[in-house]
Amino acid sequence: MRPLLRPTPRATRDIAQKLLEGINVDAGQSGFALEDSQQRAAVRLAAMGAEVTVRRRTLSRKAPRSLYLHGPVGRGKTWVMDSFFAQLDVRKRRVHFHDFFRSLHAGTHGSNAGSSTAIQQSVDSLLDDIDVLFFDEFHVHDVGDGMFIARLLRTAAQRRIPLAVTSNYAPDELLPNPLWHDHFLPTIEAIKEMMDIVKIDGSSDFRRFPASGSTPPQGSESFKAGQIVTPGTPRQLGRLGLFIPSEAQSRVLTPTTQPIVVKNSDPELLWVGFQELCGGLTSTSDYLALAETFTTWVIDGVPSPAEADAASAPAWQRFSNVVDVLHDQDITLFMVGPGPLDWDLDAGRSGLPVDFARIASRLSLLGRSHGDDDVREEAAGS
């Protein structure tokens, strides 16, 4: 048996300082310096990392405090956490919200589907053999997902496993639907009890306006190769190597349990209408399953968000989930609609998801193709 070592405050401080220096060096190598709120988060992460490291070395039963980083889109929450994750030398696991729920739901399918035992087994497998869990893009829109989250938090606390979480939502803003928010209040209070809350709220959206000289974020190159196309004429699409499918190419796909009518499903390319993809009963699990097969997506018939009532609120929420999945899985997206497809709308517009700012930030990475570009080119050549 490894002998127990007594932790010293100096050893803990030294580890924290080394972790903090590593994050700042990482930022410098990427071409920017941490903003004040990012630095505060880095300091707190480093302190947490030191506690986790000392605990592992000394076999202490004292659990470090968990950490909840939140703030507007594009402020560097995930970047800071990922840099810290790379520096931390302990048993660790990083999961994304959508991937977590996909694996959780997959683990509860079968003869014990939906049972408390199956849910607990899925949560246990996530927490097995780790010292700390990193959870990115934490959000709750569904009361059922809220129940899974509550189970995860309870089990992590029982096992004394700290969490490092990023979210666009402050804890009190989780599960914002007024029909269900009160049901989630006990879990919100648990989050505030077991986690230190740190806000990252710098003035710059680095996803839209990178710091001068900074290295572009990695991991989304295929997504950024996509285009927002309006109004989607055959000429426009043809220039992008896209050719409107014939009716004979239509197929019915069943990625999980929900059938989806698609216009084309050639190898690697999926072409589907907005209404078929988002207007029915599809779920994030469907989108994740499709993303495993198709590396390029064309979604046509996308309504203008300026006319929020052009689609139902659930359809817009599913659309947000689609964009999240395609961005996180680095899938090339061509979005086609009559326009205007302008996502920079006032927050809180009726019918659109409350987290639409995150979607707008991600869609800002895509190029744009406008119908009047063709008109200008023809005029220049005449």
TrEMBL record:
Region (Disordered): 209-228
Keywords: ATP-binding, Cell cycle, Cell division, Nucleotide-binding
GO BP, one annotated term: cell division
Biased composition (Polar residues): 212-221
Pfam family, any one: AFG1_ATPase
SUPFAM superfamilies for this protein: P-loop containing nucleoside triphosphate hydrolases
Top-rank taxon: Bacteria
InterPro entries: ATPase_AFG1-like, P-loop_NTPase
Protein name: Cell division protein ZapE
Originating organism: Paenarthrobacter histidinolovorans
